[in-house]
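Hi R.,

Here's the chain you asked about this morning:
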Amino acid sequence: MTNKKLIEKLQEDMEMRGFSHYTKDSYLRKAKEIVKYFGKPMRQVTTKELRYFLMKYLREVKKVGEQSVNYYNSVIRFIYDVVLDYPMNYKQLPMYKKKRKLPKILSEEELNVFFNACDNYMYKTIFMMIYGSGRRISEATNIRIEDIDIAILLLLDSNF
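And here is the predicted structure, written out as tokens:
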């Protein structure tokens, strides 16, 4: 398959899978860049060449971050798995592990300042519930009154 046909089939396969407009544009840009870099049909590209592209060219020459390398890796996997229907050993093209960040925890003093700045008891209660339960805003918007144990809120309020 020529690289021109590869790009056409890539667009077709993404459309069939219902990729978002942004993902399609991004995958297409990355695929064109990958094809241009190798300058030969993708079936002729070796695993060794792909490893060099991901680990040396992208990281050391282009100086892109780990998440970007993983994105290129995903595009390469899509090309080989879906577009070319050509099986690969992905153990040879591993993804970078995501670095886990610990959440920032507010000090007791910072919490006191924040909660005491709330003049409205309803908002203060909402903020205390969200912070104390570790909920996301989207989760907090779905809470019903019967989901809340009032005794706990009264206990929390007496501490602030």
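One quick note: The CA atoms of residues 14 and 20 lie 9 Å apart.

Cheers,
M.
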